[in-house]
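Tokens for chain A. Residues wanted.
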């Protein structure tokens, strides 16, 4: 990145406009893309030239404020003793770090009062590991640019401003520390969902009366045998990798996309074996309510749907019709009066 100047003469005066430009190769061409527009800087705008910075004065052993001025101009009288001339056209921006989105992620953390929730649950270790700050880094990373913990440790943390925002060094994101932090969270999962749901309702007016329930799977390129309690099993693979073991992930979210519950299930779990447990789980954690569930047709069974209709209050659902019943449904619909709206 570098600073680029554009000049324009108007009313007998020269106006200079500066911007930070990034060079990027596209095929055989090198294109310049403006990243930040700095605006006009000219002689009549004395304050605009000034870029106050703090430097360490070796003579006085103290920090001192100085101001930067363009190298092709003489220092003004008021800047004697505190001004430094620099060549702006030769300045380069190196090692830029993302700051704004990191700050916003931590601000959202504060809005959700997550410090209050985790303060007594994630105490610093005797070795000095600040688990709460580690969790903040993991959360910001997952929110802004999700990827592996290894990538966070190797590249991403160094390219972000979280070290300054959290007043922490690189030791905070040692790869073993990141993995161990995850292990400390699992026992607080139910309490965390209850805490978040209460604040989501206040902050975002979240509605929990319509819930979406679905399942997916993720596979592992690892070979059995595994311990008896291991959840990696062979099962129906949505990824077309029947040669690999997998786990099944079940998730309940609101229409706004807020998760209310999730479970990691053995890889040989069938979709229709999961719904009853989730109905009980949501009712125990969030209380009884007249909710509408949206599901794929392979998830519910007739006995479970009958239980939903007979519950107090009755559970509502919107489910795709099983393929075996489509012909019967079609026959009933064709007997109804209809009107063509458009081609």
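Reply:
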């Amino acid at each position: 990145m570098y600073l680029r100047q554009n000049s324009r003469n108007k009313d007998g005066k020269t106006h200079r406009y500066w911007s930070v430009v990034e060079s990027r190769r596209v095929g055989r061409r090198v294109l310049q893309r403006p990243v930040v527009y700095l605006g006009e800087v000219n002689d009549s705008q004395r304050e605009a030239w000034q870029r106050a910075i703090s430097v360490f004065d070796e003579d006085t052993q103290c920090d001192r404020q100085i101001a930067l001025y363009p190298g092709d101009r003489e220092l003004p009288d008021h800047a004697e003793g505190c001004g430094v001339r620099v060549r702006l056209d030769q300045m380069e921006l190196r090692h830029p770090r993302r700051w704004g989105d990191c700050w916003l992620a931590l601000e959202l953390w504060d809005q959700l009062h997550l410090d209050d929730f985790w303060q007594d649950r994630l105490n610093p270790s005797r070795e000095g590991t600040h688990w709460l700050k580690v969790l903040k880094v993991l959360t910001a990373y997952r929110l802004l640019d999700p990827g592996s913990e290894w990538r966070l440790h190797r590249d991403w943390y160094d390219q972000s401003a979280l070290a300054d925002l959290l007043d922490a060094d690189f030791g905070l994101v040692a790869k073993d520390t990141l993995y161990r932090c995850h292990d400390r969270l699992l026992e607080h999962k139910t309490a965390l969902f209850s805490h978040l749901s209460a604040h989501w309702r206040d902050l975002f007016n979240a509605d929990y009366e319509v819930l979406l329930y679905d399942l997916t799977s993720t596979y592992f390129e690892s070979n059995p045998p595994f311990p008896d309690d291991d959840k990696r099993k062979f099962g129906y693979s949505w990824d077309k990798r029947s040669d690999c073991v997998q786990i099944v992930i079940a998730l309940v979210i609101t229409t706004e996309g807020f998760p209310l519950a999730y479970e990691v299930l053995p890889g040989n779990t069938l979709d229709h074996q999961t719904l009853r447990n989730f109905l009980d789980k949501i009712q125990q954690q969030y209380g009884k309510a007249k909710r509408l569930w949206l599901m794929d047709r392979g998830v519910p069974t007739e006995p479970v749907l009958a239980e939903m209709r007979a519950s107090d209050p009755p559970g509502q659902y919107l489910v795709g019709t099983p393929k075996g019943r489509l012909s019967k449904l079609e026959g009933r619909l064709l007997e109804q009066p209809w009107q063509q709206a458009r081609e």
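Residues 189-204 form the longest helix (16 residues). Residues 43-52 have pLDDT under 50 and may be disordered.
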